[in-house]
Every structure is written in structure tokens, then in C-alpha cells.
């Protein structure tokens, strides 16, 4: 494995257009985008939905990364999920017609959309209350945006392990 010479995003300075208090969210999302791109290069399509040792497939992680960002940013805006978002959630783990490249592209587009939304967030709204899900669990705008970042990083880590196991066979 090559030693990484590029600094992680949190060490590259501020992301233009993102409020100062939301820089860590932007850094985490950009780091995830970069790592997923590198990780998925050369990944075999036939392995996309394999579940080594019963863990979630690479295809699931790629779909989930996209879907969860969409859902968490929806809640952060104070909106409820639309039927198409719920349908997407229901099929995240099902093998589909998309290839790995298409799933990575969808994730990249969702990251770009999320960054655009981050840039429009007023720091004065970060502590505003937000309902989450059907049970209306309590959160805040900042809580949802932070969770979007850390949840994305968590699944990128899981994707990394799954892909490396599959590539190493």
C-alpha cells in the first residue's frame, strides 16, 4: 500500500463558501468523496453486491452513503422525507442495475449538493430544533449536520474494509 502524501482535508485549510462552524462537516464530506473515489478504482462489478463474512456489501454502503446524506440534510432543513426518499431507503441493500461507477457518481453528486446546502446554512440556525424520523426524535440543525459527517465517515470505513477484503481474495 502506498503512503498517502496528500494532506487530509481538515489540514488543507478552509473550504470556500462554507461557514466557519461548519468547516469540519465540509472537511469530512470532502475526505469521504476523495477516499471513495480512490477506493473504488478498479473494483470488480461482479463483487459489488457480495457480502464477505456476512457484512454489508460495497453496493449497500455506496447507496447508503448517498441516501443518508439526502435524508439527514432533509431533516436539517426542517422537512419530512418524501415517498421517493423512503423508497430509496427500502432498496439500499438490494442489488440493482447500477454499476459501481454509477453509485460512486451518485455519491459524488450528493456530496456536492450537501456542500452547496452547507454553504447556505446560517450559523445562527445551528441550535434550532429539528424532528428526526417518524418518531420525531429530537435534534438540532448542527446535530444533524455533524451526524451526516460522522455517519458518512463511518460507512466509508466499513466500505474500505469490505472492498479490501474482496480485492484481496
In CATH, the topology of the domain at 57-91 and 98-169 is named Four Helix Bundle (Hemerythrin (Met), subunit A)
How would you name the CATH homologous superfamily of the domain at 57-91 and 98-169? dinb family like domain
N- to C-terminal distance = 16 Å
Taking the sheet with the most strands, its summary is:
2 strands, antiparallel
Count of alpha/pi helices: 5
Proportion of residues in β-strands: under 5%
Supply Rg.
16 Å
Number of strands: 2
Global structural class = mainly alpha
Q: Overall pLDDT, averaged?
A: 94
CATH class of the domain at 57-91 and 98-169: Mainly Alpha
What sequence of helices (H) and strands (E) makes up the elements? HHHHEEH
The share of residues in helices is 55-70%
Strand order of the largest sheet: 1-2
CATH architectural group of the domain at 57-91 and 98-169: Up-down Bundle
Shape type: globular
Oligomer: single chain
Any low-confidence stretches, pLDDT <50, length ≥5?
none
Amino acid at each position: 500500500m502506498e503512503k498517502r502524501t496528500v494532506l487530509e482535508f481538515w489540514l488543507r485549510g478552509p473550504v470556500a463558501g462554507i461557514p466557519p462552524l461548519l468547516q469540519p462537516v465540509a472537511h469530512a464530506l470532502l475526505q469521504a468523496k476523495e477516499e471513495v473515489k480512490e477506493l473504488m478504482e478498479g473494483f470488480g462489478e461482479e463483487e459489488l453486491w457480495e457480502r464477505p463474512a456476512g457484512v454489508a456489501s460495497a453496493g449497500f454502503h455506496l447507496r447508503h452513503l448517498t441516501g443518508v446524506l439526502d435524508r439527514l440534510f432533509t431533516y436539517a432543513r426542517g422537512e419530512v422525507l418524501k415517498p421517493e426518499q423512503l423508497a430509496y431507503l427500502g432498496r439500499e441493500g438490494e442489488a440493482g442495475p447500477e454499476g459501481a461507477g454509477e453509485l460512486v457518481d451518485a455519491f459524488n453528486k450528493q456530496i456536492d449538493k450537501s456542500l452547496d446546502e452547507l454553504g447556505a446554512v446560517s450559523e445562527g440556525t445551528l441550535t434550532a430544533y429539528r424532528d428526526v424520523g417518524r418518531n420525531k426524535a429530537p435534534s438540532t440543525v448542527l446535530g444533524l449536520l455533524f451526524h451526516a459527517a460522522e455517519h458518512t465517515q463511518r460507512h466509508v470505513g466499513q466500505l474500505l474494509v469490505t472492498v479490501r477484503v474482496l480485492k484481496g481474495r
